[in-house]
Amino acid sequence: MLNTMDIQIQYLLWLQHLREVTHGIFDNFFLGVTWFGELMIPIAIISIIYWGINKRAGQIILFAYGITLYVNVFLKMTACIKRPWLLEPSIKPIESALPAADGYSFPSGHTAGAVAVWGSIAFNWWKNRLIRYSMIAIILLVAFSRNYIGVHTPQDVIVSIIAGIFIILGANALLKITDKKANADIVFYAAAMILTFLLCAYLQIRCSCQMQSYNPLIDNVNPLAMKHSVYSKIAFLVGIFTGWIIEKRFVNYKIPEGYSRKKAAAIIAGIAILYLIMKHLCTLLMLFSPAHIAYAWLALICALYVTLLYPFFLKYLFKG
């Protein structure tokens, strides 16, 4: 009798057979879809919304994204579930997808990120049927793409979708509390930083325990490399909440009403600068620190840029 994992493996093998009989005609499409769960496209969309469309909606997305990163890192390092091709050697993922599929499999980070961003957009504009169904379609396509290219099992993406829905609802509730109750934002920020510290401590202990039994000849996931890979996610999470509370307390940027060329040009320029930062700053940072530390600094800077630094610039730009 087949167990749940056997059924999932058979499903992935069926998708692999589909890739083979269609000679990979859909491969590039689903590899492209995966980018909607990567960092650059979501963070660009978040920035456009946060800077120029609806700041509150942007905050919900940022909160959902930050909390999702926390939950995803915790679950990956706790469950330690291997990638599909390590569970079943006959599974052959699309080779070009492998560099971004390092570390543990459960849950799917791409799917979690997609739910946090595109799901939050659907949540904020739920009454707009076009936006709602378009965002849901993107989430489902990203989730399916992770199965199609062979880097995640169905349970990886299903859990990410379910968790993401609850995280969006929780993010919205948290923001309502921080708006209504005096100093609730400080309490939340302090709690977030304590939880982040505890996550770092947990990862250190977890990694140390795993390294004691780690055998590079047998084990395909290096616990130390896995720990290093999450530094940037934790830094991004810290940057999101730090930028949010400083902006809320001291900047309080308000989006100018209506459309103007100046507003559109400023947002496009901000996205272009963000792209250049993400593309080139890490190379400079790696001259002074190890790669995993450089990526962490880059993630922190990007989060602060989106939540605090560019809104500060926009506030005084639109005053003139």
Write the topology of this structure:
Elements: H1 4-21, H2 27-34, H3 40-52, H4 55-79, H5 84-87, H6 109-124, H7 129-148, H8 154-180, H9 184-212, H10 223-229, H11 231-251, H12 261-285, H13 291-317
Helix pairs in contact: 2-7, 3-4, 3-12, 3-13, 4-6, 4-8, 4-9, 4-11, 6-7, 6-8, 7-8, 8-9, 9-10, 9-11, 11-13, 12-13
Number of DSSP strand runs: 0
> Which outline best applies?
globular
The span between the termini is 71 Å
Mean residue pLDDT: 90
DSSP strand content: under 5%
Please tell me about this protein's structure.
This protein is mainly α and 320 residues long. The chain has one domain. Helices cover 75% and strands 0% of the residues. The chain contains 13 helices and no strands. It has helices spanning 4-21, 27-34, 40-52, 55-79, 84-87, 109-124, 129-148, 154-180, 184-212, 223-229, 231-251, 261-285, 291-317. The longest helix is centred in the middle third of the chain and has 29 residues, at 184-212. The N and C termini lie far apart (71 Å).
